[in-house]
Fold this protein.
Amino acid sequence: MIKKFSFLHKITALLMITAFVCPTILTAKDTNQKGEKKSLTEAQKIIHVLNRLGFGVRAGDVEKVKAIGIDKYIEQQLNPASINDSAADAKVKNLNILTMSNEELFAKYPNPGAVMTAVAQQNGLQRSDLQNIRPNQQNQMSDEKKENELSEADRKKYQQEIAEMYRKYNLGRPNQITQQLNSSRIIRATYSERQLNEVMVDFWSNHFNVFAGKAATRWFLPEYDRDVIRPNALGNFKDLLLATAKSPAMLFYLDNFQSVSPNAQNNNNNRRRNRLMQNQQQQQQQRRQRGINENYAREIMELHTLGVEGGYSQKDIQEIARAFTGWTIVDARGYRRAFTAVANGTTDKRTERQMRQAGIPIDTPSGSFYFNERWHDDGEKIVLGQKINEGGMKDGLKVIDILVNHPSTAKFIARKLAVKFVSDNPSEKLVNRVAEAFTKSKGDIKTTLRAIFTSDEFFAAENYRAKIKTPFELMVSSLRTIGADTNGRQVQALLGKMGEQLYGYQAPTGYPDTAEDWVNTGALLERMNFAVALSSNQIPGTRVDLKKFEAKEKPQILENSLAGILYGEVNPNTRTMLLKQIDQPLIQTKLEADMDDDDEMENPQMMNAQGGGRNRQNQTRLLPASGNAEVFKVVGLILGSPDFQRQ
């Protein structure tokens, strides 16, 4: 990325950054003449609700909430099914991945390795020859490999056959899955009337984070968003936790789909001795390669329920890992379904053989959850002092029941929600009240949130515009506030530049939600870059019309923009800086950014066979600025100001 900022612009930006540390819009220090803390006005309460329960204020929103009342608006948002959302639905209807099953995604956007396997099989090659189809890397090969490598002519022939398969069967690239899903997230957050539901989708997507860049995880993300997170975002926490535990996205991301009990052979011989005698040697080899994996067991306690200080031990992790053995995915990398789609209806025999050896019925859909009793450890477990001896899949279900009802879970979830909706440092008094609501309601998310929204702390003056927007919140609130029309696609690159590419956080913690994680010079300059690019119509696929802010004189343009974007509430220091900036030369930005260019990691060279080199469709270059220069300069500066970055 290339950015051009004048020295003056950099200094101004740095001065504006200090306002993040020292907010002065309205704080607990603001008192009346009697020394009492100020209370929020009715208009400020409405703006606060729209900023916290949603992604910012659109034109007409304040009047809408005022007409029905704040309490009624909150209740409507807590019950999204009662809200007509046809407009947002219409904007995402052409994103085909949103309605496709995992098996269908594997067929339409195949794992490149499966396509290579099909080509190799058609040419009589062995699986060991697959590496040789990729571009020549002789300088990295041993002499032995060099002797066995394909000729350059053969390699090009096979690459052409791979490219022809993509054309012949109208196949898509795997990265298109995340592109479409990310577009849908941005579009829904921007245009949905069910704003609280979208906020909670974002919250839970980070709480139960999965990383799209880990091998086959991306194929499971549409289902994860559609069938796991969204239906349970305002439901019951236990249902949500169980849905994530069974989700192929989570099973793959945290490796639980490979978790097999070392004692599984003995247990299964007692149940189905005759059947398991077949292919015994192959099964033993598979178990030696796998074994029990503790990743999910650790994260379900540390990040999903109890919290790092929740009172569990390493022994509890080991016992929970045993309880979740056998929770797996059918054809986890999609080879069988993808192979069938490109190889004249034939099947990948190797995948089917592995399924038979594992005891998985052949007609089970690829990419679906499957509980494999053969792999499960049926011995007694003790988790957090409670015995578990339910047998089979019920062992894992019992673990979920124990964790959901543990007091540490109520406290952990309550604190995260209080941080999300109230302040970065919520009081223990508030956290305890919210935890009590969680416990009494048996994990009902609506009841828990209602305890927050009806608290004195929620509407306290010191918490008004006290939280820093995450990059996703900033992007969506900017789109909403100035009435942008976006396809949600090219803006993804800018979101990544600001530090929050959706499903792009590698660690299971998910993206953070406090100011200290987002306030630094580099990140805030990227935010300014985005604000200027958006307001000047430089982002392909996103258009804005700022005529409503126009005026003959620059100071009036500023006043119109402040009224329309910040509803007239602006830090005096910010106003002073903005008045100085409107007479300065335009901030010029030049950006070329990659969008999700991490094609299937198992076969990263596959894209060379689909047109050569990098996927240029995943790059976006800013367009020349268009519109009223004086207006979009002012609007860009306001969107990039500390005042707008707060909520």
About this structure: The chain has a mean pLDDT of 85. The beta strands are 2-4, 327-329, 369-371, 381-383, 386-388, 485-486, 542-543, 588-590, 592-594, 619-621. The two ends are 29 Å apart (CA to CA). Residues 2-25+465-597+612-645 form one domain.
